[in-house]
Design a protein that fits this description.
The protein is built from 5 helices and 10 strands; from the N terminus they run βαββαβαβαββββαβ. The longest helix is centred in the middle third of the chain and has 17 residues. By secondary structure, the protein is of the alpha/beta class. 31% of the residues lie in helices and 23% in strands.
Length: 212
Amino acid sequence: MQTLALVGATGRLGGHVLHEALRRGGWVVRALVREPAALPVREGLVVVRGDVRDATAVAALLQSADALVSCLGTRRGREAHEVLAEGMAILVRALAPGPVPLVAVASAGILDAPGGGLRRDAPGYPAAFRAGSAQHLQAWRTLGASGLPHTLVCPPELVEGPRDQPLQVLRDVLPPGPKRVSMPALAAWMLDEARRPAHAGHRVGINNGPQA
């Protein structure tokens, strides 16, 4: 049995990651939440009370962790921007002593654009997402400078969908397709990556693929 530290468990994607980890077994999940009552008691779940910007709470979260999944900043247009950048910096500092795999989620805006540069800087990128994507960019730079084993998965629109939805995955760019990702399928992919990293050190573009 391995221990998974989870940040963002009360969010949309984080809730799917929590459910999938407990459903498949093999994980004890330690989830960092501000209000423990937001998560019902479940076998295999340990709730750690605190904020991701509190270094003491983060240290408690990571006790004996074999992997860390961060779902900070996935509430499109509603995320508290400073929480993402500040929280990632604290997570990185707490992880620094040991090689714990980290799988985090970020905006597709920080992937490479077809014409060069980043998607967030390309003409036509929605202005409403620009402030948030700047924080995702800062989080990516923090991870890159850390030297820690990490995978930064960058989905477009997160939607409800089937767990067995096929996914297309490419490093650094967004794969062709509908620009939406099934959250249950993405949660399963993130847990697979946390257990056996295949893209450590990379941004990963991900998209729903065609059903078989």
